[in-house]
């Protein structure tokens, strides 16, 4: 469990355990379904999972297999932060043991151990932020793939993301600290 929530430390992870339900996840089980209500958080200790999203293109339903990921991992943290319906369907393609934190148990944590609740929310926010950054970098990498020059890469990226231009040294120094390590893409 500590590997899933490294910022909590052993003491807070130990105080979380009594609020969790142990569940065996079998191969083929749908853990969450896109559009469904639900706020359980799954602490996946192993296994392999695949993510599906349903969209429409010109009125026709299309199913996207947007990702696959191994455990250990967390699932469902977005719903605790946003109180929204599930954003995707996740299926176990390899079973595992997991722990589940229900909304009711999370509410108990908020009441009885606010420090733990705050640290959990921070950890969930960090996970969402990291996943968003990884997705953004993957999309940019795919857009820039096979551009023959920096000019072609700038033009191609601009078509999808808005205005893009080469960094002017004066503007670069004004907007960003000198020690900023920006993401680097290779397009040609």
UniProtKB/TrEMBL annotation:
Signal peptide: none
Domain of life the protein comes from: Bacteria
Domain Cyclic nucleotide-binding stretches: 4-110
SMART domains noted in UniProt: cNMP (SM00100)
PROSITE patterns in alphabetical order: CNMP_BINDING_1, CNMP_BINDING_3
Pfam families assigned to the protein according to its UniProt record, in alphabetical order: cNMP_binding
Annotated protein name in UniProt: Cyclic nucleotide-binding domain-containing protein
Native source species: SAR92 clade bacterium H455
């Amino acid at each position: 469990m500590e590997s899933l929530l490294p910022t909590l430390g052993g003491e807070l992870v130990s105080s979380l355990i009594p609020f969790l339900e142990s569940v065996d996840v079998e191969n083929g089980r749908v853990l969450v379904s896109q559009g469904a209500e639900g706020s359980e958080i799954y602490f996946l200790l192993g296994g392999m999972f695949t993510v599906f999203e349903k969209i429409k293109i010109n009125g026709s339903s299309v199913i996207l297999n947007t990702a696959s990921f191994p455990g250990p991992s967390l699932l469902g943290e977005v719903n605790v932060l946003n109180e929204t319906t599930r954003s995707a369907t996740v299926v176990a393609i390899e079973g595992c043991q997991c722990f589940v934190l229900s909304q009711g148990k999370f509410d108990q944590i908020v009441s009885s151990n606010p420090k733990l609740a705050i640290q959990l929310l921070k950890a969930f926010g960090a996970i969402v932020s990291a996943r968003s950054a990884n997705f953004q970098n993957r999309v940019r990498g795919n857009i820039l793939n096979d551009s023959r020059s920096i000019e072609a890469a700038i033009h191609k990226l601009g078509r999808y993301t808005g205005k893009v231009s080469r960094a002017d040294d004066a503007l670069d120094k004004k907007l960003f600290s000198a020690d900023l390590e920006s993401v680097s893409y290779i397009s040609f």
